[in-house]
Structure formats: C-alpha cells, structure tokens
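Q: Could you fold this chain for me?
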Amino acid sequence: MARAHALPPRPSESPNRLATAVLALWVCGLTGCGLFSAKPDAAAPEDTATTTGPAAYDLAIEAPSDLKRLLNTHLDLARFQKLPAADAINPADLNRLVQAAPAQVRALLETEGYFNPQVSVKKQGAAGELPSVQVTVQSGPRTTVQKTDLTVTGDLNTAAQAGNAKAHALVLRLRQSWKLGPGEPFRQGAWGDAKTSTLGTARAEGYAAANWANTAAEVDAPANTVKLQLALDSGPLFRFGNTTVEGLQRYSPQAVNNLRTYQAGTPYTEKLLLDFQERLQRANLFESAVLEINPDPAVAEATPVTVRVRELPKNQAELGLGYSDSTGQRVSIEHTNRRLFDRSFFGTDITARNKLELGRDRQSLETDLNTHPLEGGWRNLVAARLQREVLEGSTVRSTRLRAGRAIESERVDRLFFLEGTTAATDSTNPTIPDRLDRAVTANVHVTLRRLDSVLLPTQGYALHGEFGSGYAFSNVAGNGPFARAYGRLNAYQPLGGQWLGSARLEAGQVFARSGIGVPDTLQFRAGGDESVRGYTYQALGPLVNGTVTSGRVLLTGSVEAAHVIVPSIPALLGAVFIDAGSAANDFGALRPVLGYGAGVRFRSPVGPLRLDLAYADKLKQFRLHFGVGVTF
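A: Sure. Below is the predicted structure, expressed as structure tokens.
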C-alpha cells in the first residue's frame, strides 16, 4: 500500500511556520484514535450482548455538524460514555479521558483538514453528582491544497522521455487527472482516494507493478495550506503471456481462447482483460468468469493470465408464464443444450435452443443452432421459426429459415445471414384476398451501444440497424427484387434535479415496385408498448377497404421524462411521455397519430418495469400498457 511521509521543515523557514503531518496516520487512522482499546486499562469486552449500565457521565459536544458526527463516533469520551455495568468508568478513568480529549480532538480534526482548531474541554459536577463534560470546538478554516508535484520514474518515464506517444500521453493523464488540485479542501480520505485512483490508472494502463516511491503532505498550519509531493515508480511495462483456463469440465478450452482480446506479447491493459471477461459472460456457457494476471515484475515481459470459469449446466429448461401487450397471456417452454450430442462437429461444439410459446395472439416454435465461439469470437448459426400471429385485421402464418455468422462485444453486435421467409396472410375482410408471399434475402444487422448501463441505462445511446435485399414471390402479386432498411435509436440523458430523460426514434422502409408482393413479416406496422402507446399492438397501418394492413414505410418517435417519486426509494420513478407515428405505403401517405400519458417505472435488477396509462388521441380512449426491460 502507498504510504505518506512528512517532509522536514526547510532550512529557510521557521519550524513554527510549518506543521508537517501525515494527517493522523500516526495517531490512529480514525478507527483507533482512542487512548484506550475498550476502557482505560482494560481490554475491549467481547460479549456485545452484555447489559450496558446507565451513563457514567453526561457529554455535550458543540461543533459543526459534520465534525460533531466525527467526534461522536471516534472520540473516547463519546465511545466510553456507556459501558457494560461490570466495566463502569471510575473517576480516575474519566479524568484521564478529559485530559487526553483536547489532543485527540485536534488529531481527529486534522484528518478533515482543520489544523488550527480552538478546543476546550470542561468537566463539572460536585461529589456524589453525575459528572458532566462539555467539549467545545471552533474548527477554524479548512486547509486547502496549494500545489501538487507529481513525478514519474521507471519504464513509463523512460519511454515518455524517448518520445513514445502513448507513454507521454499516460504521464500527462496521470498529472491532469489528479483529484486534489489547487484550492481543493484537503482531507485524509480525499488524499488517500486520489493516490489510489492515480495508482490504479497506472496499473490499468500496463504498469501492473506500479507503486508509490514516496508521498508527502507538507502542511503550513498558520497559512492553512498544504503542498503535496508524490513520486510514482511505474515499474516495467507488462505484456500478455500464456493463458491458462481453470474450471472446464464440459466445454473446450478453445471456446475460451477464441474469445481472447489479445495475443501473446500484446501490452497489458486492464480494459483488454475486462473486454475478455465481458465476452466470456456473454457467451452463454459460463455462470462466472474471473481473470487474473501475475503482477510480479520478474514476469512482466510475458505475464501469465489465469482464467477461472464456472460452467453453466449442459442442459437447462425454463417454463415461463406471463402477459405482454403484444401477445396477451402466454406460456412458454424453453430448452437449451450447450453441447449437442456431447460431441464436436467440424472442429467445434454446438449449442441448441428450442422454444415453444403459446399465447393468446401468438404461437411460435423456434430452433436455434449456434457454434461455440470460433476464432475471433465469431459464431456460425442456423435458425428456424414457425409462427402464427393474430394482428389487427388479419392472421399471419409465417416460417423463417436463416443461416449466418454473428459476433457480440460490449459495444457492437453484428449479424450477417441469408434468410428464406414465407408469410400466409388471411384477412378478416372478405374483400381482401388471402395471399402467400415468399422471399429470399441477404441481411446485415448491427447494434451499437454507448450506454452507462445496458440493463438500466441513464445516459448514452443505442442504435440498431437492419439492412437486407433479395427477391420476392407472391401468389396474388408480382415477383421481383426488393430491399429493406430499418433503424431504431434509443437515447438517455439525466436532466438534473433527479429527472431522467429518454427518447426513441424508429424508421423503416421497403424499397420495391408497387406490384411486388413482399411478405407481411418484412413490412411494417405501428402501435403498442414499444411503439405508439395508447393503441393496440401493430394496430396502425394503411387501411384497405377499412381494414388495417402492413405498410412499406414506418416512422415513430417518443420522448419521456421520469422523476423519483419518493427520495427514500430512488428505484421508483413516475414518468410522463408522448408518442407519435404510424405506418403507411409511402411517406407521402403517412399520417402520424399521437399517444400520451403517464406511468410508473421501477428499476429492478432484471431491468426497468413499466406501467403506463396512455391516451390515444385518434381513438379518444385510454389503454394500459405493461412492459419489462429495454429494447435496442
């Protein structure tokens, strides 16, 4: 651990002008500031259940509120005011506490940056009466930082002096990010935090053995200023060496190594290690993953990395019951086999997932086959889905088969695939003919995240984009090429005063000649909890003979402001919002509708729970919406 050392007075200055201090490290470190460990001349009682007797004396402390709390916690007069009956304070003990109190108060106040307090301690009470002790404190001005001198030695300084741009930038960053700048109040806690933060930055940027060669706080008590002097010895620059994986029983070590974010010889940074850990946690193979390097300078040129994992079970089944705005009540059964047939295929293991969902308005069966991580973290995938969905004005039975590659990271997810789609659309309007449309497409899906939290975001944005092109076939319309684009932007921003703001914008378009029959599942509708609230799910679209159908363009948006309802429950917020948008056959025909209202948010460990009462301006009616999580 870094240590602070006091500097001796300079020869040109009077010793009366300088009070060198390590800010009460020599006194106690706050928790041991007493002259006694439990009571004078006695060990601390271990039996905390022992009955305490009446107060041995009255104690009154007059001091600023923050210092009063400090003294009530750590001053011996306060700590020993009530003791177990068997260890009651006697008059001699009390006199020693009173005599020691002024020095102890000054030592405690020095940890908060007060080096010129006025302290008085008075004891009163005649013989036979309960003694009373009055502690009066006038803190005086708090000491502030006058100057900080931070020097760097070791390999980091050598590289910076030799013109290495990264090393030079790191030295500047260490100095510029120092937390106790000129004019800042000087406290023992802030001094320790600043040293820990700077040391942590150096270690995270490749100098894992960095340590403080010297730290000193030179206090000029009469002037209420302090000069800080620090010397950081960076030690050597660490580079990654061999990676050892521990805890594997079912899965291949190759799956772990394929998720590495570094190669042997790459300069070590904490971020590379954390990115590796993030990939492992997202791989759906491990319950936990802990990564460590050996910080011994002797192995800096090739520091070994140890990865300790705890595997998820090979087979896992889940039963779900729920309700959503899109499907109503539903039951689902999902099974995951993380090593299909207990063998490898084409040099890799395969995870198989099957899910059956039975809902009021949607029934589906999905099967996904994903390889374990390949080189660079990529996965190959094959997926199939059968689905029946009841929408406003029609029932759509669809199939989907796709094959492709995917990679996920902390900030970017990418998916490339070929897909075959069929959609049989049966309209509730007899004037609209039933149709069967098919398509084959090549697709790219990309998700970008710049969020402070993926689960409970409050600042940043997430952008999801889908791009595809292919050829469509229809039994009632023309055949031909088409393209499809869709984008969704979610943004979050604190507004001050415990207000949180969020906004959403989504847009989509199918590019094709008007007579080409594009499958319904590749077109657009609006309405529902994640679209325009106040309207039923997928109920907004172009009208054909009075019946809602899917359209070729989509545009919706939303803004929302949320505020903590009860300060003691910061996870519970109230919100107001306004949504707008619709779907149509072209943007010229788009007629956005409004939905607005208020709701409640609960920031739970599984994501935000949302309950909204929305008013549909077009329909002149209210609708209740319930949702869980965030859609990116």
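A (continued): Residues 41 and 105 are 21 Å apart (CA to CA).
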